[in-house]
Amino acid sequence: MRYQSMGELKKSLEGVVDINGKVGVVDQEKLRGQAIDRLVFNGVFHENAEIKQAARDIVRQSAKTLGIRPASILPLYEARGRGDCGGFTVPAINIRGLTYDMARAVFRAALRNRVGAAIFEIARSEIGYTYQRPAEYAHAVMAAAIKEGFAGPLFIQGDHFQASAKSFAKNRQGEVQALKELIKEAIEAEFFNIDIDSSTLVDLSKPTVRAQQQDNCEVAAELTAFLRPLEPKGVSISVGGEIGEVGKKNSTVEELEAFMEGYREELDKRDKRSKGISKISVQTGTTHGGVPLPDGTIARVKLDFDTLGRLSQVAREKYGLAGAVQHGASTLPEEAFDHFPRRECAEIHLATGFQNMLYDDPGFPGEAKKEIYEYLRKECAAEKQEGETDEQFIYKTRKKGFGALKEKFWSLPEEFRREIGGKLEERFEFLFKKLNVVNTVSLVREKVPLD
User: Fold this and answer.
1) Most buried residue among 96, 229, 294, 449 by CB atoms closer than 10 A?
2) How far apart are CA 287 and CA 369, in angstroms?
3) Read out DSSP for 92-123?
């Protein structure tokens, strides 16, 4: 499947894509066939940097020719903050592995249900352990959009661009600079939605809520001011902030108000004209990935929907934000998802549940799974905690198989990838309906113009 040379790449695209000068799509149906499959694979795995970059450039430019435009969801969120729309919760979908196939499943479900309000995202930590830099992630998602015939605003998001509290304590400037470099890299890859997460810097030992949030306010403001001059012409990036670290204590209205007042004050010091955040992530009782029990099943959680609704209301009515954002939700029971749009939760982040569907599917090839799990037992042995069962250890670490063994996932039998793709598509459709984003294409096109 790898191109043997640039000459072969060009020859394979004759009559499909015109790459002499400005890229133009000659035959969309042929492009959506084996051509796009081969381009996306080479843009991820080819060892030759020239061929890899050429494949990525062709996919990106072909996508734009076909009306697929990376966009900021900010205009929609500003409209929600004004009260012009509501009653839905935007799903932000983290894709850790099998990215092309999983993104295709999202697009199929979205197209069938006329879903315009959906986000593709990847977190700072996921970029690390899945070996997916922003340009690669955007490449795979745009290729999936071409494959499935999607057109319109495409929302790609940097999730949890998170400050490490340990690194920050040792070298504040160095950790902030690392985040700036990641933000710059993401924007260059056309991530026009960035979630800044400096909630890890909240210090609950300080005497007042404002003092507890101060480092969070300063870093969030500094990064917001940093990214605004990097925006392409005509794009205003949607920026998210966070007040409560996921998995820790539940957030309060007092914390939300303390953060917003401190954040705006710090942002005004840097640039009074700069747009602030469009949404605020809060903690209401979830943990990323859920809590694995000794047998490997996931403990049920009690999510505080009253707190979520109250925080979302204050965020909208007092600060003009789209509302609150819920993290760590993909492993919640099915009956929980109706509550998010009812409480006017602006956005919900979903990740581990899709990973679980892939790994736990009875059709997942046994030998491949055995190889992945043996790799984890060897390479991640230091992460196993005292008293932890093998099932708990595997559940917590198997996300790391997606990086080192990436090509093995992409090369799983086509029949299995087709079957799991269908199951994922059904799951995405279920979530789209529960979150009330069905038939949002017209709303998104109205609020997020592409020209």
Assistant:
1) 96
2) 25
3) EEE--SSHHHHHHHHHHHHHHTT----EEEEE
Computed on alpha carbons and rounded to an integer, the radius of gyration of the chain in Å comes to 22
Give the span between the Cα atoms of 178 and 237, in whole angstroms: 19
CA distance 290 to 293: 10
Per-residue pLDDT of the chain (451 residues; tens, 9 = 90+): 899 999 999 999 999 999 887 889 999 999 999 999 999 999 999 999 999 999 999 999 999 999 999 999 999 999 999 999 999 999 999 999 999 999 999 999 999 999 999 999 999 999 999 999 999 999 999 999 999 999 999 999 999 999 999 999 999 999 999 999 999 999 999 999 999 999 999 998 999 999 999 999 999 999 999 999 999 999 999 999 999 765 467 889 999 999 999 999 999 999 888 899 999 999 887 554 444 546 555 555 567 889 899 999 999 999 999 999 998 777 788 888 999 999 999 999 999 999 999 999 999 999 999 999 999 999 999 999 999 999 999 999 999 999 999 999 999 999 999 999 999 999 999 999 999 999 999 999 999 988 6
* 436: CB partners within 8 A, 6+ apart: 87, 88, 89, 341
Residues ≥6 apart with Cβ < 8 Å to 365: 412, 413, 416
Q: Which CATH superfamily is domain 68-356+417-447 in?
A: Aldolase class I (3.20.20.70)
Helix or strand or coil: residue 77? helix
Query: What distances in angstroms separate CA 249 from CA 39, 287, 304, 324, one per listed residue?
Result: 45, 11, 11, 16
Domain ranges of the chain: 6-65, 68-356+417-447
Residue pair 300/292 in contact (Cβ under 8 Å)? The answer is no
> What DSSP state is assigned to residue 255?
H
